[in-house]
Design goal:
heterodimer; A: mainly beta; six-stranded antiparallel β-sheet; four-stranded antiparallel β-sheet; B: mainly beta; six-stranded mixed β-sheet; 10 strands; globular
């Protein structure tokens, strides 16, 4: 059973860069779509983007200019970097994966990121 | 299309059948997937593709679609089904992924 575990700083100051990792256990990272999704305090879910087969990325156009995703297969980790954060980026960030881009079978427990105003 | 629309809240009496809908142009070409989220938990996939349930999901959950609307049906709703339900799908150009705003299901 694939297990995912997000980790991150918890608090990021406005205009700084957010960096999150997601450790994948019990399975190969290839042939999977690895997505990042966030949930705002109002409980709205927003798709951030995905990385497929360690190299092919697809980002939400509203975040694309600030966003980078990567995979380190040697560490079984996904990474997300979001630049120039604002309070609107405050959310629970989840990593999720599946063999289809929009079918998220496996989820992490999420990590809360707060950007204070 | 860039939107999936869900009713914000739906209620059902214990043991009765409830349908939760998701509407959007992309659903004319792509199936919706459905996720259940209980308080303090991560979302969980309950229906994917045309009408497929992951292992462990009770068979009272089913999915269907017609035109621009996808539906999640719970036949014989249980108290433990009270949760938020979200739909997602590919967009109409098969480029990005869309998410619905979520439906809060209350079991009375």
């Amino acid at each position: 059973q694939v297990q995912l575990q997000e980790s991150g700083p918890g608090l990021v100051k406005p205009s700084e860069t957010l960096s999150l990792t997601c450790t994948v256990s019990s399975g190969s990272m290839t042939n999977y779509y690895w997505n990042w999704i966030r949930q705002t305090p109002g409980k709205r879910l927003e798709w951030i983007g995905y990385i497929y087969n360690t190299m092919s990325t697809n980002y939400n156009p509203s975040l694309k200019s600030r966003l980078t995703m990567s995979v380190d297969t040697s560490k079984s980790q996904l990474s997300l970097t979001l630049k120039s954060v604002t309070p609107a980026d405050t959310a629970i960030y989840y990593c999720a994966g599946g063999t289809e881009a929009a079918t998220w079978v496996h989820w992490g427990q999420g990590t809360l990121v707060t950007v204070p105003s | 299309s860039s939107e999936l629309t869900q009713d914000p809240a739906v209620s059902v009496a214990l043991g009765q059948t409830v349908r939760i809908t998701c509407q959007g142009d992309s659903l004319k070409n792509y199936h919706a997937n459905w996720y259940q989220q209980k308080p303090g938990q991560s979302p969980r996939l309950v229906i994917f593709g045309k009408n497929n349930r992951p292992s462990g999901i009770p068979d009272r959950f089913s999915g269907s679609g017609s035109g621009d609307t996808a539906s999640l049906t719970i036949t014989g709703a249980q108290a433990e089904d009270e949760a938020d339900y979200y739909c997602n799908s590919r967009d109409s150009w098969n480029i990005y992924i869309l998410l619905g705003g979520g439906t809060k299901l209350t079991v009375l």
